[in-house]
Amino acid sequence: MLKSEIRKQALKSRLSLSDEEYKTLNNELLKQFIALDFDRVKTIHVFLPITEKKEPNTFLLIEWLTQNHPEIKIIVPKADFDMVIMTNHEYLGIDDLQKNLYDILEPQRGNVYEGAVDMVLIPLLAFDKKGYRVGYGKGFYDRFLESLNAQKIGLSLSSAGNKIDDVNEYDIRLDFCITPTEIIKF
Ligand SMILES: Nc1nc2c(c(=O)[nH]1)N(C=O)[C@@H](CNc1ccc(C(=O)N[C@@H](CCC(=O)O)C(=O)O)cc1)CN2
Ligand SMILES: Nc1ncnc2c1ncn2[C@@H]1O[C@H](COP(=O)(O)OP(=O)(O)OP(=O)(O)O)[C@@H](O)[C@H]1O
């Protein structure tokens, strides 16, 4: 299937989740997430969820990490929509976040972080069995991941979907995808 079609379907089915279903799926996703091996992870990049679009609620993961791995540094993104690039910022807590024009929370005072990142959690609309993903279609994450040497982990509230037929040379495959029922290794 083509990305454009997959994108439309995925958005629709995601928005049809009830608040109750959304909550349950997020709790199940957290249970899978905590089974990852964090032994060599010093820095983790976590996207900030657009909950209006029923993206995985990464605040649950941030909370768990803060409590169970206070030694891990949490980094959050800020997107520049003109340049289609993202920068890494230190996470100073929820009070430092404000929504941009696209309803995406972003850090205000958190300094740019230029150091190494060991693990990146990646938003997606759909993924296939080979580990390719479909996002909102601007190519933010493909550009961002190019410059990082980190474990790439997709987060999805639904399971693997149809094969993506229009994969391009920029598409970067995930190393893992976490769903509410399993951790898939590609
Ligand atoms: N939480 C989160 N942050 C993220 C992403 C994501 O998927 N999730 N992105 C992943 O790449 C980037 C943002 N990607 C976006 C791409 C397009 C539109 C956008 O244009 N939205 C319009 C509708 C479409 C249009 O007008 O063309 C809108 O919402 O009005 C928004 C965000 C960076 N940050
Ligand atoms: N590293 C890159 N350099 C230049 N162009 C790129 C790069 N990565 C992606 N693109 C271009 O960006 C556009 C959007 O890519 P694609 O459809 O794969 O986005 P997506 O993965 O769905 O979205 P996102 O990464 O924002 O979640 C494509 O036209 C693609 O060619």
TrEMBL record:
Entry's EC annotation: 6.3.3.2
Keywords, comma-separated and alphabetical: ATP-binding, Magnesium, Metal-binding, Nucleotide-binding
Record-linked InterPro entries: FTHF_cligase, FTHF_cligase-like_sf, NagB/RpiA_transferase-like
Reaction catalysed by this enzyme: (6S)-5-formyl-5,6,7,8-tetrahydrofolate + ATP = (6R)-5,10-methenyltetrahydrofolate + ADP + phosphate
Signal peptide from the UniProt entry: none
Pfam families: 5-FTHF_cyc-lig
Cofactor(s) for this UniProt protein: Mg(2+)
UniProt keyword Metal-binding, yes or no: yes
Cross-referenced NCBIfam families: MTHFS_bact
Membership in a protein family: Belongs to the 5-formyltetrahydrofolate cyclo-ligase family.
Protein name, as recorded: 5-formyltetrahydrofolate cyclo-ligase
Lineage: Bacteria, Pseudomonadati, Bacteroidota, Sphingobacteriia, Sphingobacteriales
